[in-house]
Amino acid sequence: MFTGLVQILGEVVETREEPSGRRLTVRWPGLDVAAEGPVVLGESVAVNGCCLTVVELAADDTFAFQAGPETLARTNLGTLKAASKVNLERALRLSDRIGGHIVQGHVDTTATLAELRPEGPWAFLKFTLDPAWTRLMVPKGSVAVDGVSLTVVDTAPGWFSVMLIPHTLAVTTLGVRKPGDTVNIETDILAKHVQRLMETGGKFD
Fold this sequence. Notes:
Elements: E1 8-18, E2 21-27, H1 33-36, E3 44-47, E4 50-59, E5 62-67, H2 69-74, E6 85-90, E7 109-119, E8 122-128, H3 131-134, E9 142-145, E10 148-151, E11 154-156, E12 159-164, H4 166-171, E13 182-187, H5 189-200
């Protein structure tokens, strides 16, 4: 479980195709092992909002993940290459503040950046995606975009918009996104459960 507050912009060191998926080796620059504790095998880390398991430790600040077919089909991880920047967040501890919202790291789908409009030091972004997912969004509700907890400004079938403050633009991949880029989307877990209850009438077989 995560909060959608990106801790660092990581960098992909290497990608390698495997028979059952893809291996990503990622560096966490400046990881303070003394203060934050070392990353360990089996630990969960959100990479562009996708919860992945550390399967290899190359160094204190460099580790590898594996992404299977389902993950590659639902996310933008298949487009990453060496030197790509990625948003990184370690899993939430019970003592942590939840500064964003509850993010599971289970990416629902991808969206396309359709419009990017600077507004002074801020930026307006509009994304398009399958209308089935915008049904789960409401103005002033939460959405995770590439693992970043954001507030929905407006939404309608097939699109939603957000406003980014200068800090978010500076410390996440959203600051370098361009129209046409693909981003990972995780909708609010509460909205998904409510929708499921309404569809089933509260009955589960």
